[in-house]
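User: Some background: our group keeps a shared notebook of sequences we're curious about, and every so often someone picks one and asks for a predicted structure to add to the entry. Today it's my turn. The entry only has the sequence so far, pasted here. Could you supply the structure so I can complete it?
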Amino acid sequence: MSDILFVRIFDRYADVLERAGIHCAPEDWRFEYDPSYVQGGQATALSVSLPLRDEMFAGPVVCHWFGNLLPEGAIKAAICHCHPDRQCRCACQEHQPC
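Assistant: Of course. Here's the predicted structure to add to the notebook entry:
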């Protein structure tokens, strides 16, 4: 299984965040800046832990940075449109009810 998220920074396409694997483990997360974004002259890094570079980032650094952007609690439930019997895949966790 693979989940992807198109990443935009200041309304410019930066690349795709990918989570592959059936366990949704931190090691399954990958992110790489698009070369045209990095070489575009006005590129901004997502964070100091994900500086601009040509190589792919993988593992916990990606999972933790992107996972900490996600909401929790009532806001997460509203976004997921969860009900008691529905499972949501969020952050660095396996499928869990909201």
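Suggested note for the entry: The CA atoms of residues 25 and 92 lie 6 Å apart. The beta strands are 2-9, 12-20, 29-31, 57-58, 87-88, 96-97.
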